[in-house]
Amino acid sequence: MKTNTDKYLVGANKKIKIKDFDTDYNGHLDKETGKQELAAVKEELIKYQEVLYASNSHAVLVLFQAMDAAGKDGTIAHVMSGLNPQGCQVYSFKAPNAEEYDHDFLWRHYKALPEKGRIGIHNRSHYENVLVCKVHPAYIMNENLPKYPSVDQIDGDFWKLRYESIRNFEKHLTDNGVTILKFFLNVSKEEQKQRFLERIADPAKNWKFSSGDIKERALWDKYMEAYEDALNETSTDYAPWYVIPADKKWYTRLAVSQIIAETLKGLKLEYPVLAQEEVDKLAEYKEQLLSEE
């Protein structure tokens, strides 16, 4: 089944409203069919990843952003299962440490970029700097920026500069062979509530829950505004955002997998071709091997 990527795509220079995206969409599939589709797409991903690794000319950076309990970890685990670990790099970003605060906000993310031939997955990303930091602007004070000595000076112009820095960063990466895919897993507030309750009820999932989750949930509307601004300001032709329905985990995993597979296919990569001189030597090597006693 081919994904209608336009359904999830945030078009460049177009303003979207997150509320217009259906969190419960399932592609008119049932769960069992969705799982079968996912298994088939995984087989495609394995083939495309092998060619990506062999060609060693491109890198793919996949970013996941979402509210708590939207399913980032599970999506990453299911989408990337079966791929060659040598060709994948997964980073989960937490709050910056002292060393990271001593550099610009993109520094630690640049360090985590995938090498050529590899797929890099960032669980949370440089977008935290215009999401959680926009909801909690006091966090910016940890950066000790000379032009912004107080929270009162963190204004609209500051965020415009942040978005511009991100767009320039991503343009630089794409100009140098990095294909960027950005996924916002769009879970509803009601579904988040149910997942929190499940974590509280199941001792095996208690570790996934923290009091901070409830505090951040109380700021839901502010987060939706921050996400909407970030998507509208930074979805470009070279680094697009996709708003993925996240109320049904099985469909989230399928949609993400299909978009990644279609993107890899679109790169039209090929296995390296040996020089004729090397091809000519293969027959010689074959004879040597066959003649071994």
Automatic annotation (TrEMBL):
Superkingdom of origin organism: Bacteria
Keywords: Kinase, Transferase
GO molecular function: kinase activity
InterPro entries assigned to the protein according to its UniProt record, in alphabetical order: P-loop_NTPase, Polyphosphate_phosphotransfera, PPK2-rel_1, PPK2-related
Any Pfam family matching the protein: PPK2
Positions of the Polyphosphate kinase-2-related domain: 29-266
NCBIfam families (UniProt xref): PPK2_rel_1
Family designation: Belongs to the polyphosphate kinase 2 (PPK2) family. Class I subfamily.
Protein name, as recorded: Polyphosphate kinase 2 family protein
Origin organism lineage: Bacteria, Pseudomonadati, Bacteroidota, Sphingobacteriia, Sphingobacteriales
